[in-house]
Amino acid sequence: MSSDIGPRRGLMLVISSPSGAGKTTLSRMILQRHSDVTLSVSATTRAPRPGEEDGVHYHFVERDDFRSMVNEREFLEWARVFDHFYGTPRAAVQQELENGNDVIFDVDWQGADAIHDQMPNDVVSVFILPPSIEALRKRLEARPGSDPEKVSRRMAGARNEIRHWRRYDYVIINENIDQAYAELENILLSERRKRLRQLRLENLVQELLDED
């Protein structure tokens, strides 16, 4: 599915949720159904895992190179997670936006804040909530390899993430994945039509005003 509104600047669709609430599933659905949406590919200092490809799953970089990128302000946001660093390269995102493509970010609230601070006019942020804490617990328990300790840890993390829901432009309650997707897609299509993202308007309006 593509835009029918003419030339436009892409937007940055920042999606966050507690673990198990559905942001990864919803992101994949958007990517599958919209050819003009891409997924932001992060840079990381960790080694590739089996099956991971450089430039597809992550940009794998050496620690010294990552530090240089930080010093040169080449990241929209970056963070240390345990013993490794992760960051969102700025240049690739800007190029996608200028090409009229939207970019999805699957990040936590801290990453969402950092991205918004860098490019506030381009960001559309969406927070995904579960319908209840019990529903979230059942989803986490149903995950392959889950155990009581993992579920307890993820539930604690989920509550911390949920506390920041007011930071987002939109909130979707994911009780039914198809309905949640419909709401997310409506947000995407509506935001594309914002005045600042429609590139032909300035010239069109000037032509209209210049006519006798």
Textual characterization of the structure:
Helix 1 (23-33) packs across helix 7 (177-192) and helix 5 (133-141) packs antiparallel against helix 6 (148-162). The chain is globular and about 75 Å long. It is built from 8 helices and 9 strands. The chain is of the alpha/beta class. The termini are far apart. It has a 5-stranded parallel beta sheet, sandwiched between helices. The longest helix is centred in the C-terminal third of the chain and has 16 residues, at 177-192.
Q: Could you give a short account of the major beta sheet? A: 5 strands, parallel
Protein structure class? alpha/beta
Distance, first to last CA: 39 Å
| CATH architecture name | 3-Layer(aba) Sandwich
- Radius of gyration (CA) equals 19 Å
Q: How many separate structural domains?
A: 1
Quantity of strands, as a count? 9
Low-confidence residue ranges: none
Residue fraction in strands: 15-25%
Count of discrete alpha- or pi-helical segments spanning 4 or more residues: 8
Tell me the CATH topology.
Rossmann fold
Entry keywords:
212 residues; Rossmann fold; 4-stranded mixed β-sheet; 5-stranded parallel β-sheet; alpha/beta; 42% helix
